[in-house]
Amino acid sequence: MSIFSQSRPAIDLAANCLAITLAAASMPIIAGETCQHPGPASIAPGSNAFACGFANQVNGANSTAFGRGNEVSAASSTAFGHNNFIAQTASTATAIGITNFVTQSRSAAVGYINDVTGINSNAFGGALYRMSDGQLINGNYVLANQSNAFGLGNSTTGMRANGFGILNVASGRGSNAFGGAYDEGDEAGLVRNTASGTYSNAFGTGNQAEGASSTAVGFRNRTSGGRGNTAVGEGNIASGLESTAMGSGNEASSIRGVAIGSRNVVDGNSALAVGYGNAVSGTFANAVGAGNIASGEYSNAFGNAGRATGVGSLVVASWYDLDGNGQQSFDLDLDGDGIVESSSEFGIAIGTSAVAIGAGVRAVGDYSAAFGVNAVASVDYSVAIGYNAVADREYSISVGSPARMNQIANLADGTEATDAVNLRQMRAADDELGAGIAAWLGGGAAYAGGVFTAPVYVIQSNNYNNVGTAFGAVDAALTDINQRIVDAGGVQGERGLSAYEVAVRNGFAGTEADWLGSLQGPAGPGGPQGPEGPAGGGPRSVVYDNDGRDVLTLAGENGTTIGNVADGVAATDAANVRQVQAGDAATLASANTYTDTVAVQTLQSANDYTDSRFAAWDAQLDSIQRGIDDRFHQQDRRIDRQGAMSGAFAGMAMNTAGLSGQNRIGVGVGVQGGEQALAVGYQRAIGNRASVSLGGAFSGNEKSMMGGAGFSW
C-alpha cells in the first residue's frame, strides 16, 4: 500500500516547522484540555485527552496532540508535529514529525511521511527527495506486524521484517533489507535492496534476495529460485537451491553450486568454480583457475583454460602456444569427424575418467591419461607421457611418437611378473632363452653372445642343419617304407610269420599242437543211431569203425591219392587240398596284416614323439611370454603410482604456495590408472629471505621423499 494512494493535504515544510514552533511556545505551564493560541482552535473531546496547537483533534481517551493538524482517534496515543494521524484502531501508538500515519496498536511513526499499519511496528525516518529533479519518493511504509523501517523510503510488508537505510524493501516473513537503492535516472530505474523471500536478507545497494533463507550482500546481487542461496559481492546471481555466488559477475544456478571469483558460471549440481571465467556444468564437477571448463560429471579442471568434458576426468593444464602466433587456439573438432584436432592449445580431458596434466595435453579416450606438453592419449585406456607423446593404441603407454621416440632411462630391474624389464634383463633373458633352445634342438646347436650356432642332424648319412629339413628327411624315409609295404608291384618280401608264430608273438605260451588244440571248440552233442551199413568186403578192404585199427597204410610206393575227400570239420578230420590252400592264404594274410599294423604303429609313434617335443617347446615359450607380460603389467602399475605421487605433490604445493605464515603444512592427493597417492609436506619460513621444506608421497609400496632450502639476498 503506497501513501500516495491516500488522500492527504498538501505539504508545506516551512509552514509545518513554524506551526510546530508556535505550538510549543504557546503551551501552558499547567496542562488543561486545550492550550491557548492564535488561529483555529484545537479540540480534545476524548476522556482525559489533551490538544495543544493549531487545529488538532484528540478523540481518544488519555491521548495527546501537539502541533498543527494532528488527529488522534485511538486511546493512550500521542501525536507531535504536523498533520500526523493515529487511527482509532491504534491504541498506545505514537506519531512524531510530519504527515505520519499509524493505524495499529503499539506502533510508532517518527519522521516525515511514514506509514505504519502493523501491530508492534515502527517507522523512523521519512520520504526521500531525488536530487536530480526534486521529486518526492515515498516515505517509510510498515505494513506487517512486528516490523520496522528506519531511514528513507523503506518498505517492510513482511511479518517481523526490517528495512534500514534508503528505499529498502523487506516483503518476506522475517526478512531484512539494509542499505540503499541504485538510481539509474528515474523512479522506474531505481534498483532497491529487496528481501522478498521468507527469512531472506539483502545488504548493500540494489540487491535482491527472492528465495527463502537467501542472502544478497554487496552491489546489485540477486538470489532467486530455491531456498538458501547466497550472493556476495557485485553483480552476482545465485538462482539455484542452496547455491553460492561470491565475487563479481558470478552465476550459480544449480543445486548447491558454488561460484567464487569473477565471471564464473556454475550450472552443475554440487559443482564448484573458483577463479576467473570458469564454466562448470557437470554434476559434482570442479574448475579452479582461469578459463577452465568442467562439463563432465565428477570432472575436475585446474589451471589455465583446461577442458574436462569426460565423466570423472581430470585436467591440470595451461595454455601452450602450439603455432607460435601468440594467440590462444581452441580447435576441438574442426572437420566434424569426432576427433579433437591437433591444433588445440589447451589441456583437454574428454574421455570418461580421463586425466590431462600439462600444457596443451589431450586425453580423449575413456580412462586415458596425458602428461607433459602437447601429449595426446587418443584411445581408451592409453597413457601418453612427455613432450609431443602420442598414445593411439588401447592399453598402451607411450613416451614419444613415431616421429619422436624417447628412451625410458634408469629403469630398475623388474622383480614381479608384470614389472617392466630393462635392456640388461632382456639380454640376460635372451642368452638364457637362446641357450635353452640350443639345448632343446641338440645336434651341436649353441648360443653365445647373441650368435646362434645351427645344429647338425645326421639322417641316413646326410647332414641337416635345421629341424624342418631333418624331419622332412625322416618323413620322406617313413613314406618310402610305407609305400614299399603297401605297393602291390613291389619286391616280394620275406616269408611272413605263421599263424602259430603270430600267436606266440602276441603272448601265446605252448606248442603248436597246443595252439591248434586251442582253436578247437568244445565237442558237440551225440547224434542219433544211424541205419546198419552193408556187409564188409574182402581181406584187403578197410572197415573204419573197427576199434582195433589205429593205423591205416595205403598201398603203393608213391602213395595213394584219395579222391572226393570232403572238407574236414572236426579237429581229427582229413583235410583236402582246398582247405590246405585256404589255410595257407589265411596265414599269409594274417602276416601281412600284422606287418602293416606294426609299420603304422611305428610311424604313429614317431609322429607322436615329434608332436610331444614341439608341444613342450611351445609351452615353455608361452611361459616365457607370460612372464614378460606380467613384468610389463607390474611396470604399468609402478608408472601409475609415480604419476599419482606427482599429482599429489602438485596438489600439496598448489595449496601452500600462497600462504603467508611461517609454518606451512600441505596435503595433496593424486590418482592415476586406479592407483592413489598421498603427499604431505612442511615448510618453515625463516624471515623473508630463507626457507626450508621437506615432504613425502606414498602410493602402495612406492615412496618418494623431498627436501630443500632457499635463500635470497
From TrEMBL:
Pfam families: YadA_anchor, YadA_head, YadA_stalk
Signal peptide: 1-31
Domain annotation Trimeric autotransporter adhesin YadA-like head: ranges: 59-83, 195-219, 230-249, 252-277, 363-389
Top-level taxon of the source organism: Bacteria
Domain called Trimeric autotransporter adhesin YadA-like stalk: residue spans: 407-437, 562-599
CDD domains for the chain: LbR_YadA-like
UniProtKB keywords: Cell outer membrane, Membrane, Protein transport, Signal, Transmembrane, Transmembrane beta strand, Transport
Protein name: Adhesin
Organism taxonomic ancestry: Bacteria, Pseudomonadati, Pseudomonadota, Gammaproteobacteria, Lysobacterales
